[in-house]
Amino acid sequence: MATVGTHQEQSTGVEVLLGQKVSYQKHKPGANLSVERLDREEVIQIDSVNRFGNRIVVNDGAIVMEDVPAVMMRGGRVAFLLPTGEELYLTME
Q: Model's pTM, two decimal places?
């Protein structure tokens, strides 16, 4: 899963995904990343990104990250890499 970081094209904030349609690809679970409410079979649109301290809440809790991730975009793929080791990969539609 580390190949996205090695071939990084763009690092940005989560807010850049507002309005984008994405689909779940895979994730490396952990205590600081919650994707239980994320529909893994459907394409979703990122409608909201809220920050509460270091906590990032996407689409009213579909994705919750307990720390600010590095966001890398390359070739239609988005990687959220948390400093605690959790990872989330989405595909842009």
A: 0.83
